Amino acid sequence: MGCSPSEEELVKAGIQQMDSQNWGEAISFFNRALEINPSNGTALNAKGAALFQEERFEEAIPIFTAAIDADSASYKAWFNRGNANLKLENFKNAVSDYNMATILDPNQTDIYYNRGLALLGLEEYEDALLDFDKALQANPNQALVYFNRGKAQLGNNDPAGAMQSLTESINLDGQNGAAFYLLGVTRMSALGEAEKEEGCADLKLALQLGFTEAKTWIEDFCE
User: Fold this and answer.
1) Is the pLDDT of residue 63 over 80?
2) Distance between CA 133 and CA 93 in Å, rounded?
3) Judging by beta carbons within 10 Å of its beta carbon (0-12, 13-18, 19+), is residue 2 exposed, middle or buried?
4) Where are the domains of the chain?
5) Cβ contacts of residue 205 below 8 Å, gap of 6+?
6) What CA–CA distances, in Å, run from 100 to 105, 106, 114?
7) Phi, psi of 105 (to 5 degrees)
8) CATH number, domain 1-77
9) Could you report the per-residue pLDDT of 93-150, keeping only the tens digit for each?
10) Is the pTM of this model over 0.85?
11) CA dist 159 to 137, 156, 183, Å?
């Protein structure tokens, strides 16, 4: 008679399926491991991550909660639950989860960017800027961090700073139509005729890159 695979072997097989992006197969392996040991924190966190990849965010949250209950000292399940809450726009819950994750492992710089996004969603712009700056200190070549930093600066009534951040974002990623759009709108709103030509050029590039919201601005102010 063949031996049934162990809990550890099932978790390992599930993680191998995760590596191949076979999320459903991975969940099956994790479920089998959890039948043996319902408190296997690694299996619970990995199952939640697979559900997250399938965009089943509401289903993922209680699985991550169970992973936290099984191993509250690991930052991973806190961070992952924060990500699921962020996707569901449960911004306060996301910030709370990210706060715990940073306490448990302050060296995980992805936490700062994601918490910044949640704070941006709460319109807590100054705190969001602090987190985006921490993320950029760890790695200054992050176009999306600069893009969202620019959004936070606009919310904080700092159009000059926002234009600088948006320009940095575009320099790192010239395909972000939303960044060109926001830069063009900010130029024209904050500086008027002095920046109209450059603002219109930004808006036209945004439209070329598929950001269709630029079309109305171009028709109203650039033609």
Assistant:
1) yes
2) 22
3) exposed
4) 1-77
5) 177, 180
6) 9, 10, 13
7) -150, 85
8) 1.25.40.10
9) 999 999 999 999 999 999 999 999 999 999 999 999 999 999 999 999 999 999 999 9
10) yes
11) 22, 8, 9
The tokens 């191993």 sit on which residue?
71
**Which tokens go with 115?**
């918490």
Contacts of 103 (CB under 8 A, 6+ apart): none
Q: What does the block give as tokens for 162?
A: 């926002």
- Calpha distance 154→219 (Å, rounded): 24
Q: At what angle do helices 75-87 and 57-70 cross, to 10 degrees?
A: 160
Which residues 6+ apart lie within 8 Å of 118 measured at CB?
82, 85, 86, 91, 94, 95, 98
Closest C-alpha to 148, from 60, 222, 86? 86
DSSP 87-127: HTT-HHHHHHHHHHHHHH-TT-THHHHHHHHHHHHTT-HHH
Structure token pair of residue 182 = 């926001």
Tokens of 72: 């509250």
Single-letter code of the amino acid located at 52: F
Helix (H, G, I), strand (E, B) or coil at 129: helix
DSSP percent split of the chain into helix, strand, coil, nearest 5: 80, 0, 20
CB environment 129-156: b (16+ within 10 A), e (fewer): bebbebbbeeeeebbbbbbbbbbbbbbb
Q: In this predicted structure, what is the pLDDT of residue 1? A: 45
